[in-house]
Write a structure and sequence with these properties.
The protein is α+β, with helices and mostly antiparallel strands and 414 residues long. 43% of the residues lie in helices and 17% in strands. It has eleven helices and nine strands. Strands 5, 6, 7, 8 and 9 form a five-stranded antiparallel beta sheet that branches. Strands 1, 2, 3 and 4 form a four-stranded antiparallel beta sheet that branches. A hairpin with a 6-residue loop joins β7 and β8. α3 crosses α4 and α6 packs parallel to α10. The longest helix has 26 residues. The radius of gyration is 34 Å and the shape is flat. The N terminus is likely disordered.
């Protein structure tokens, strides 16, 4: 049954039509049809006019969408959710039929919106028109003689090939608008390729590859070894702690989610703490301290580099001690941070972002690359062999082609 058949009940005299074929075939077909009807009847869910019927919808296949901003023809998909109340329950046999009909109608409406906007809209801005799309799908669903309770577009996406083409277009556009950045990126790519070749050579020679190291932001006294809790009165009680997982924050410099590991010592006054409660109080104190440190780290890194956490050690010690008096176990204690470490995976992100920022200045880029090469053990002769002449003039942006030390267009020294 097609869409219109689903909507308006189909041909009610279908059961009176003769089945073509031999008598044996006819009997078999009738038996199969009867079995199918019985199966569907047992699986059908009665329609409750007071209960919303929810269903998902989406484009059945990728839609060709011409992006007005880039001129690219993208393969795109869309998907969402909807729910309806069926007031006229006699029009449909089951909730499953409503779901199937609604899914088909909503999907066709979404596909129609994409087709109508192809060539006229920027695909990346379509989600800002979410309300318009929801309204269009909702109006279409009302044709099903039910009450539309909710329509929500959940997302729009490109396939991998379209995404790569779009990103490549944007990259070329940015480079064309900023020749100096294009030159810096070319230098960076050349250096990375050279360094990778050096790594391959070291691996071929059986040399050990350098493993990235954590960045130690702060390190004070070594943390004491964890011991069993004393079974006699002990005051003060020294409790070493370490964050069980990284404290995650959004870094102001990289705009990326990063994390730090922290450790320290809580020196707790146990005057009012029974011996059999030492462990309970210690666990609660650790939780309060780690929670408070998370708040401080997040606050600091919203405005400063993660490395500046070392300048806030005193603040951390004081605020966590205050938190212990107001929260959880409510005990007097001194807190001393002894270690702040940025794991290697986050250190790598930080260094790459800083390198990219420095690369925006071609002159500075060369100095940075030379320093990086020295760190990698690359000799001056190898550095000279890796010297890269810019493909674009940093002054006028014209191609340098096979010109010498000066741009043939404006005369700028390359």
């Amino acid at each position: 049954m097609g869409l219109l058949g689903s909507l308006f009940g189909g041909n009610k005299n279908t059961e009176n039509h003769a089945v073509a074929g031999t008598p044996a075939a006819t009997a078999g077909a009738k038996a199969n049809a009867a079995a199918k009807v019985n199966t569907n009847a047992s699986a059908a869910t009665p329609i409750d006019p007071k209960r919303e019927i929810h269903f998902k919808f989406g484009t059945k296949a990728p839609i060709s969408f011409k992006d007005a901003k880039t001129g690219l023809t993208l393969k795109v998909r869309g998907f969402g959710n909807a729910s309806v109340l069926v007031e006229d329950t006699a029009s449909y046999k089951s909730a499953e039929e409503v779901m199937e009909t609604g899914r088909e109608m909503a999907s066709e409406a979404l596909e129609r919106f994409l087709q109508e906007n192809s060539g006229n809209a920027d695909f990346m801005r379509l989600m800002s028109r979410q309300n318009e799309i929801n309204e269009m799908v909702g109006e279409t669903l009302k044709q099903g003689r039910w009450k539309v309770m909710m329509v929500r577009l959940a997302g729009l996406s490109m396939d991998d090939e379209s995404k790569q083409a779009y990103e490549k277009f944007r990259e070329n556009q940015i480079m064309a608008e900023n020749p100096a950045l294009a030159q810096a990126m070319a230098i960076k790519q050349e250096a990375e390729a050279f360094m990778e070749a050096q790594k391959e050579q070291r691996r071929a020679n059986g040399e050990e590859e350098k493993v990235p190291e954590d960045l130690v932001i702060y390190r004070g006294n070594p943390l004491p070894e964890t011991k069993e809790f004393p079974k006699v009165l002990t005051n003060p009680l020294v409790i070493p702690f370490h964050t069980p997982a990284e404290i995650i924050f959004r870094d102001i410099e990289t705009k990326a989610s990063m994390g730090v590991s922290m450790g320290g010592v809580i020196t707790m006054d146990t005057t009012d703490v029974p011996v059999d409660r030492y462990k309970t109080y210690a666990d609660a104190a650790k939780s309060v301290v780690i929670s408070q440190l998370s708040v401080i780290v997040t606050k600091v890194c919203m405005n400063e580099s993660v490395e500046n956490l070392r300048d806030h050690i005193g603040e951390m010690n004081e605020e966590t001690a205050e938190a212990l008096l107001k929260q959880g176990p409510r005990v007097k204690a001194q807190v001393r941070i002894e270690e702040i470490v940025l794991p290697a995976k986050y250190r790598d992100i930080l260094e790459h972002v800083r390198l990219a920022q420095e690369m925006s200045d071609p002159e500075r880029a060369r100095a940075v690359l030379e320093e990086k090469m020295r760190e990698q053990g690359i000799t001056p002769e190898q550095q000279q062999a890796a010297v890269y002449r810019p493909k674009f003039c940093p002054n006028c942006g014209s191609s340098t082609g096979d010109s010498g030390k000066f741009c043939r267009n404006c005369g700028t020294k390359l």
